[in-house]
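Subject: for your reference before the review

Hello V.,

The reviewers asked for a structural picture of the protein, and I figured it would be easier to keep everything in one thread rather than splitting it across files. Below is the amino acid sequence we used in the manuscript, unchanged from the supplementary table.
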Amino acid sequence: MPHHDISPLARVVARVDSLRSGDRDPDVIPTGFRSFDHIVGGGIRGGDLIVLGGDDRVGTSALALAMALRIQEPTLFLTSEMLPERAFERALAMSAKVSLESLRLGVVSEDERVRIAAESVTLRDRAPVIDVLGGGGVDEVVRAVQTTPMPAVVIVDGLEALITSEQALHQSRDETLAFAILALKRLALASHAAVLVLTHLPLLDRSRQDRRPRLTDFGVRGAVGLHADVVLSLYREDLYDGDLGVAGAAELRLLKHRDGALGYVDLFFYEQWMRFEEVL
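And here is what came back from the structure prediction:
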């Protein structure tokens, strides 16, 4: 019987039976960060909108790129921050554990050159599709998804880049970005892909005692809290106080989880490699 002829209820029951038999849930996509995957039920899910926010320089782009490199399913990475070649420079630096500066200058040891060669083979065989956002707004993201062979994960870096010049003239920032959040959720549903979008925190008060991001810090008229299935924040105390002996320590927090409980995982950021690793 064709898949579309099965009722949604029957598909849920069949999925439960399949999982009880030990099969992998095809809707769940592990990010490769095991502790995070554990608290969200095995990974991110197709059809979900995931929003990741953090303060400037906290490393949201580096974390998203790390996920794109670890995810085993076809992944589309759309960036407004760098050319694809620069993104792959970062990918090689974090994967081979080589200083980004050394990689750019070609000043690497023989051991580092061997690691770079090995990681380049891995990337060649299983790399995300990386493309640049050119100012076309959400429509550009939709076209990129339609022209990429069935991406399971779509990463948008970042939300603010989806404001077109026309919208900037005629709409407020919050109105435009609130619509973009809703449109990205619709895209996730229509494509059955997990859509991960990165964003700044316009309402973050850096003078408050606890600067860990809150759901209200995302602004955009509450659209993130309303439409996203999963809302994540990335926090590093060393951005604000480097004298506390916490250099590199990071927290990835679940601020909203439509299908489960909230929580957090500890990460460690190696700035020289632009690399996040789990603290197990």
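For the response letter, the relevant points are probably these. The chain has a mean pLDDT of 91. Residues 76 and 180 are 18 Å apart (CA to CA).

Happy to draft the paragraph if you're swamped.

O.
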